Amino acid sequence: MAEPDHLxxxxxxxxxxxxxxxxxNKQVIETIVAFANTKGGSIYIGIADNKxxxxxxxxxxxxxxxxxxxxxxxxxxxxxxxxxxxxxxxxIAHIKVNEFPVKPISAKGKYYKRINxxxxxxxxxxxxxxxxxxxxxxxxxxxxxxxxxxxLDETKIKKFQERVNQSGRFNLEGSxxxxxxxxxxxxxxxxxxxxxxxxxxxxxFYNIHIGRFKTQSHIIDxxxxxxxxxxxxxxxxxxxxxxxxxxxxxxxxxQRTEIFEYPITAIKELVLxxxxxxxxxxxxxIQIRIFDNEITIFNPGGLYGNLTIEHLKTDxxxxxxxxxxxxxxxxxxxxxxxxxxxYRRVREQIAxxxxxxxxxxENSGGFLISIGYKKQKTETKVGEKVGEKVGEKVGENxxxxxxxxxxxxxxxxxxxxxxxxxxxGISSRKIEENIKKLKAKNKLKRIGYARGGxxxxxx
Length: 459
What we know:
Elements: H1 6-11, E1 18-21, H2 26-37, E2 41-45, H3 60-73, E3 74-75, E4 81-87, E5 90-97, E6 106-107, E7 110-115, E8 118-121, H4 124-134, H5 154-167, H6 176-182, E9 186-187, E10 190-191, H7 193-199, E11 208-213, E12 219-225, H8 229-242, E13 246-250, E14 256-260, H9 264-277, E15 286-290, E16 294-300, H10 309-312, H11 324-332, H12 342-350, E17 356-363, E18 366-373, H13 400-411, H14 417-424, H15 428-440, E19 444-447, E20 454-457
Parallel strand pairs: 1-2, 11-15
Antiparallel strand pairs: 2-5, 3-6, 4-5, 6-7, 7-8, 9-10, 11-12, 13-14, 15-16, 16-18, 17-18, 19-20
């Protein structure tokens, strides 16, 4: 192997895999640990932060002392290559650290990783993630202690089996138990964490908290979604869609085209991403907030492995999965593509919405997505009428509030004006005015008295 050009490396400054120190100290050992826990790197002793070559007074005995300190301080012990080299007739030390195969490594009980040109202390969850990744394991592959196959719902497993076979990605034959064994979701008759989250009879309280907000503090409607993951995706999407505005495009025919304010496939991709890749060891819920022109999704657990925000902004990033078996299950049903194309598809979908944005960041120990717009999308074709936005006159001259009243009555025909006011975010007087207009249009009828009666929607 060719000798590295140390002078050229030093001239480029500190980075993900290069660190400068004027003397050997405890920070050097922390950097050794950070490099071993990430992608390896080089430490140059005798170089200032500004790249000035200052040199050191050292000999073979000094190098041996450093090696002993590193060995005694790290766990498991690290043995980096240390050599004395001359740059411009000045002696410096070069410490070469390789990525350790079984991670994480600690320095006096503390764990570090390398991010850009600095060392960062690992959280407990990050320590666990690094260990599982280095062992080529994931949390969801471990047995769910004290659970048995009888704790799983065989009807849900059979439905999953049908969807897998229909997708064409895998031929899954046999009894429910045999199917789970084939996919490593069942080990010695004990369900894995993945099997329980996907098919359990009882709720495991991995919640998805969804709310419709008028402002950060004014909640119009909210729901706590529980249940197995396939059910959670379905119920979450139902709630979100029920709160989306719709623009209509008319073609002069009886039929009309509905244009949702967000591309539904993109929203589903983001919901799937949150549910599949969340950190299930965290007690924090997935939190989805629907505002007038923005949706935010908070997912407990930051980016996994070596994936970064910058990687996600490209169309060529490599997928890394915190929950391998859960990811595999959704891949087999064709709900997702396995190879890191999710965000690319989201970007492709929102490109059709001129004022829409899509942002994401690591936030408060988790991952926060924001998708929104400045102006709702409507489309026009030559010779056709313009679809008018919900909130103005829509369809058969219904306003947004009137459509919302019909929607909530369709869900609960005994709902009160006060409850409608709270859900829609307008006064009770406005609710009464809109109900009066709907009656006049022969679209709504009251059956019975105020107490004990109910609403009837006239088709």
